[in-house]
Write a structure and sequence with these properties.
mainly alpha; single chain; about 350 residues; disordered C terminus; 4 strands; disordered N terminus
């Protein structure tokens, strides 16, 4: 759209477009936060139960590698295989249960709870090699590639600086017991993982800020897109204007039908006109049944004269009633006396209807 119209996407996305993008699975989300949370959960488990976990691993490995006893006793290999499967599942079960929960906890603060199936629908443009090449060489693709390379280099540098001092200790570990070797390897691995995790936390924060910025940038709209969306959500402005015009015309027609029922029309004289009705049987006070300015003012006066309704010039009263009293409402208390004088004058006319309009 922006390319076709030549307009820039410099307007923030509307709530409707944000909801549409969310329904399609487009949200501001950093995958690095998921990685950091999962790695942090693993580190937490290792910190709390690392000793017991390593001890269990050692026993499992020692017993699982005791092949000679099986050969000597001519036992079957099936029990050994089942032992390995049960041992591995028992040792990995905390991670298999915890990692999905951590992934869910990492996504909820970022995007909230929202289920959509549109992301599962195949999109032909994603299967196109040309589209893949365009995404690869786009600004977002370049940023993602640069981020991946930087992350690999950073983790490699941390691993090198952590493991390099441990290289001279390898000959000593090979002469010791398996338990000591595993314990030392676990300690080194734990130190390495902690360093990598701290680095990834910083990267995840930066990546989340970038994803939020990039998400807002991609959702930006042109003026034409905003107009089109308003047409879709609220209807064509021309149609709405036409509907309002028809509604106002019908309201004016109903109002003009009330002018013949009025007792008097007070005017400004050429700016505004207000028709008043007072029926002792149904009105507690005089009621404004019609009012208008400009050409509508002339139309009210013309209709009043056609039906022998007196038209009187009372500029202050006409302006006040026109500005402060809605159609079908009674006049305010502060003008009771003035309106009563006007109606008294009308009622004193010998022949109120047949004598024609009275201008005063």
């Amino acid at each position: 759209m922006a390319e076709e119209t030549g307009q820039e996407r410099n307007l923030p996305a509307t709530p409707r477009k944000r909801q549409k993008a969310r329904d399609e699975g487009q949200v501001a989300k950093s995958r690095e936060i998921n990685s950091v949370m999962i790695l942090g959960g693993a580190v937490g488990i290792f910190a709390l139960f690392g000793g017991t976990w390593i001890h269990t691993w050692t026993e499992t490995v020692n017993k699982g590698l005791d092949v000679f006893s099986i050969i000597e006793l001519e036992q079957e290999w099936g029990p050994l295989g089942r032992y390995w499967m049960k041992g591995i599942l028992r040792l990995l079960s905390p991670f298999l249960i915890l990692f999905p929960l951590i992934a869910l906890a990492a996504n909820l603060p970022q995007v909230g709870f929202h289920i959509t199936t549109k992301v599962l629908v195949p999109k032909p443009n994603r299967l196109s090699p040309l589209s893949g090449v365009k995404r690869l060489f786009s600004a977002s693709g370049f940023i993602e590639a640069l981020k991946s390379v930087g992350k690999v280099l950073l983790i490699g540098w941390i691993a090198y600086t952590t493991l390099r001092p441990e290289i001279p200790l390898l000959p000593l570990l090979s002469n010791g017991s398996l338990g000591n070797a595993l314990s030392h390897a676990a300690a080194v691995a734990f130190k390495l993982v902690i360093k990598v995790w701290i680095a990834l936390v910083l990267l995840a924060i930066l990546d989340y800020l970038f994803q939020r910025w990039n998400y807002e940038r991609e959702l930006r709209m042109t003026k034409q897109e905003v107009k089109e969306e308003m047409k879709e959500s609220e209807g064509d402005p021309q149609v709405r204007a036409r509907v309002r015009s028809v509604q106002m015309s019908m309201a004016r027609r109903r109002m003009m039908q009330e002018v013949p029922t009025a007792d008097v029309v007070v005017t400004n004289p050429d700016h505004v006109a207000v028709a008043l009705r007072y029926d002792r049987l149904r009105d507690m006070a005089p009621v404004v049944v019609a009012k208008g300015a400009g050409w509508l003012c002339e139309k009210i006066k013309e209709t009043a004269r056609e039906h022998n309704v007196p038209v009187m010039e009372r500029p202050p009263l006409a302006r006040l009633l026109y500005q402060q009293v809605e159609l079908g409402r009674e006049i305010p208390v502060e003008v009771y006396r003035v309106v009563a004088e006007v109606l008294s004058y009308v009622y004193r006319l010998k022949r109120k209807v047949t004598d024609g309009p009275v201008d005063n």
